[in-house]
Specification:
Oligomer: single chain
Number of domains: 1
Keywords: Membrane, Transmembrane, Transmembrane helix
Radius of gyration: 27 Å
Number of helices: 19
Strand order of the largest sheet: 1-2
Structural class: mainly alpha
């Protein structure tokens, strides 16, 4: 007997399972689309395989993704502080550019092209200490290369602001049913951690011409090598030899296909500026996890306000996702320290695909289980949102008072304000590192004019 006839004979109202399991795309896309938009702010490799792996990594391990950005800025700050320790704080070009920024800019440019396997930080610092005390004519090369790197560095503040506006519109769409935007209820709140990452990535920026950066650094190393041969009272030390070896390794790579800024997944946490950085790992990891903790707390708070005396399976969605992300970060740490570099990339990709699959299943099943239990007469899953589809624009906020309730508005404002405060705190903490590549246009013109005048005077 067909299943429909059996259901009718038993006196049950039969409806297809698809009624309780809406389209997977409408459930998953509100979570995936903002992450894909976030990745457009980054300069990713041309290889489609690496681009897809970056999407999987951002979805499956956002803590590590955020960690990489914060550690990158922390590394820049430490480079600047170490450089300031042995470089005179005198200013160049009519008091605009300090020597420390010139040297730190070249270090950052070298890091951008070196990749995680290079020893560029320590070797370059040794080379900087070796040559920084030589006469002013020798430092012209440093200033020219630093200016060229600053010219090729592009910031994406405008794109980050557009992304933030998109997020605000999605947040309004989740809070007001009159706003005709197809978005998942609470998806904007759960993904609020994307906003500070977007703003931070736009503030950091990236190389508009990576090949030009590579050419500039190569010319710099060649010039330093020539100066080393001309200086009679000094000899090339081990740091200079490692620096030349690093650049030779960089020039032999397929640079157009594998951009070093995302080569592997941990290009910055693998760095060692001045010895081990193990002491900074717990602090930067906790800082990177704060936006996700704020998002999870806000998500659960909104559900509790909607129905404090009842629970649904949706209550467990945010904590489950946060637990999966924390587990994924721990696995990434284990892969970094236990797996050889040759196999790290493939193992990390496999881990990210598996974790992303778990996340998609959690989004689908936990948001559907309440509807199925409600239809089966189970007491589990009762309360606000139990008979709604998590992936379609059916607004719990609007149904229970929405924007007219002060507690909803307060929680949403607190969530968004906390994420902005997190971004402001990171910028303030690492402002020295963010300042390295931010050379004002007027300052660069003065530098070029002064260098051209000085070079012409020496030539005559």
């Amino acid at each position: 007997m067909p299943s429909t006839q059996v259901a009718a004979a038993d006196g049950l109202h039969h409806e297809p399972f698809a009624h309780y399991c809406p389209n997977v795309v409408t459930r998953v896309m509100p979570f995936v689309a903002p992450i894909c938009l976030l990745l457009t702010l980054f300069e990713t490799p041309l290889s489609p395989r690496i681009r897809m792996s970056t999407v999987f990594h951002a979805l499956a391990d956002p803590i590590d993704f955020s960690w990489s950005l914060i550690h990158k800025v922390a590394a820049w700050t430490e480079c600047y502080n170490l450089t300031s320790g042995f470089v005179e704080r005198e200013r160049l070009a009519d008091g605009h550019i300090p020597k420390a920024r010139v040297v730190a800019t070249i270090i950052v440019g070298l890091d951008e092209i070196a990749g995680p396997r290079q020893s560029s930080h320590q070797s370059f610092l040794e080379a900087a200490k070796h040559y920084i005390a030589i006469e002013a004519k020798s430092f012209v090369l440093w200033r020219l290369v630093a200016l060229e790197l600053a010219d090729h560095w592009k910031h994406g503040i405008s794109a980050s602001l557009l992304f933030t506006v998109f997020y605000i519109l999605q947040l309004l769409g989740a809070a007001m049913s009159e706003f005709e935007v197809c978005c998942t209820p609470f998806a904007a709140v759960l993904l609020s951690w994307v906003v500070p990452l977007a703003l931070l990535s736009g503030r950091i920026g990236g190389l508009g011409s990576p090949r030009a950066c590579l050419d500039a650094i190569s010319r710099f190393v060649e010039g330093i090598t020539a100066e080393d041969a001309m200086v009679k009272y000094r000899t090339a030390d081990s740091g200079m030899k490692r620096l030349r070896h690093d650049i030779q390794g960089v020039t032999s790579r397929k640079y157009a296909e594998y951009h070093p800024s995302v080569d592997g997944y941990r290009p910055w946490k693998a760095r060692s500026v001045n010895g081990s950085q193990q002491s900074t790992i717990p602090s930067t990891a906790f800082i990177a996890a704060l936006p996700l903790i704020i998002s999870t707390a806000t998500f659960v708070s909104l559900l509790w306000i909607a129905g404090p005396d009842s629970t649904t399976h949706q209550w467990f969605l945010a904590p489950v996702l946060l637990g999966i992300w924390v587990l994924s970060t721990l696995l990434s740490q284990g892969i970094c320290y236990r797996v050889s570099y040759k196999h790290q990339w493939h193992v990390t990709i496999a881990k990210d695909v598996a974790v992303a699959t778990l996340i998609v299943l959690a989004i689908i099943l936990l948001s559907t289980a309440s509807s199925i239990n409600e239809a089966n007469g189970s007491g589990i899953g009762s309360g606000p949102g139990a008979d709604t589809e998590f992936g379609i624009t059916i607004n719990l906020l609007y149904e229970h008072g929405g924007v007219y309730r002060a507690d909803y508005v307060s929680v949403l404002a607190l969530c968004f304000g906390s994420q902005l405060c997190f971004y402001a705190a990171v910028v303030r903490k690492y402002r020295a590192g963010l300042m390295v590549m931010q050379w004002p246009e007027e300052t660069r013109r003065l530098e070029y004019a002064q260098l051209e005048t000085r070079t012409a005077a020496w030539a005559s």
